[in-house]
Amino acid sequence: MGDTAKFIVEGKEVESPILKGSVGPDVIDIRKLYAQTGAFTYDPGFTSTASCESALTYIDGDEGVLLHRGYPIGQLAENSSFMEVCYLLLNGELPSAAELDGFTRTITRHTMVHEQLSSFFKGFRRDAHPMAIMVGVVGALSAFYHDSTDISDPVQRRISAHRLIAKIPTIAAMAYKYSVGQPFVYPDNKLSYAGNFLRMTFGVPAEEYEVVPAVEKAMDRIFILHADHEQNASTSTVRLAGSSGANPFACVAAGIACLWGPAHGGANEACLNMLREIGTPDKIPHYIERAKDKNDPFRLMGFGHRVYKNRDPRATVMQKTVREVFDALNVQDPLFETALRLEEIALNDPYFIEKKLFPNVDFYSGIILSAIGFPTTMFTVLFALARTVGWVAQWNEMIEDPSQKIGRPRQLYTGPTQRDYVPVGQR
Ligand code: CMC
């Protein structure tokens, strides 16, 4: 028997096995603890709890390392393509040239959505947040594909995964088009995944849309940077929803709902709004003081992370990409200077040093997306688009795992103990 951890609960000693991953912290397997002791463990926010076994993504938060199937995110962002990263996440290995070609063709051939799906958009108010539209319309996909609802069949699961990855840019672009009152643009299968998305978003029937290669590259890189990120809140939501055997499109819609919050994917939108509010570098000290004040709900958006206690490696790539996009589009944004200065000031402030708060992926992404022409309300939609592959890869891994049960946490109950009902006239 390998290493064990000992628990003494009300005088009774029990041993729990310690599991070892290929890298990273050991994990105490407490699955039998309740049966052995009658006690639960308590970990709101899952700060010390591994909820599953996974071979997809690894983060070393102290060192600022992020690996997808073992490959560092910086190398993938520099040398790979989003299609290749999707293949890698779904299949475990990088594809050969022929495999990549075949996979790209399959995804491309699924980019159209059922024409009837367009009717869903009309049910939304014109000023609806595009994330609200995404939650609804992606959930609605579950009503369209009755040929792939048997989640115990790996082939059907694969088809659902391909459909989700292929259709999410089309739906995201439609959400944008609806919000600006322009006609939906159909996919053009001659274009790349990122190029197609840009054309469906910014193209109009009256004019030929030219994809700017540097912007297409930046878009593809942003998708790579967001592809997967271990057991974050939205991924855990997708897994929890899927653990009951729910339809994959509905599970991804649940993930989108969770991603929307400002502590998670909504931070990119909140971060750009914050930078706009700060405006010029001379206002930074005031906002730094607010972020440090416990009585003020203001937080520095795009800063801090549950896992990274060092610079988020994705933020480094993002910062570099800002300059590339600015050069390609020949634009400048004074907010970039404000962001750089804010980072510098925060990283030299004892509060941020002590709490190990560094820029995360969202700190610079908004500046790039804004330069490309996206309104802030679309930022989290782009995150959802890119994270869809991570969600389906994790969902699929969960279903293949024979030890996975329905997710059903327990609780520390602090409500009233049993009491008798009192009729309304006697209260
Ligand atoms: N500004 C000011 N103080 C902060 C910040 C911040 N951005 N982030 C954390 N802190 C403080 C927090 O007040 C707490 O202080 P204390 O120990 O005195 O109570 C300490 O740092 C630890 O923070 P926490 O909230 O307990 O940590 P957490 O792991 O629960 O939260 C977080 C992580 C990302 C929600 C949080 O850092 C945050 O709200 N950041 C701003 C939002 C943001 O940028 N989110 C994007 C995350 S990356 C993209 C993604 O995964 O979606």
TrEMBL record:
Annotated SUPFAM superfamilies: Citrate synthase
Keywords: Acyltransferase, Membrane, Transferase, Transmembrane, Transmembrane helix, Tricarboxylic acid cycle
PANTHER family: CITRATE SYNTHASE
InterPro entries: Citrate_synth-like_lrg_a-sub, Citrate_synth-like_sm_a-sub, Citrate_synthase, Citrate_synthase_AS, Citrate_synthase_bac-typ, Citrate_synthase_sf, Citrate_synthase_typ-I
Family per similarity comment: Belongs to the citrate synthase family.
Span list, region Disordered: 407-427
Record field: catalytic activity: oxaloacetate + acetyl-CoA + H2O = citrate + CoA + H(+)
Listed name of the protein: Citrate synthase
Transmembrane segment boundaries: 363-386
CDD domains assigned to the protein according to its UniProt record, in alphabetical order: EcCS_like
Origin: domain of life: Bacteria
PROSITE patterns documented for this protein: CITRATE_SYNTHASE (PS00480)
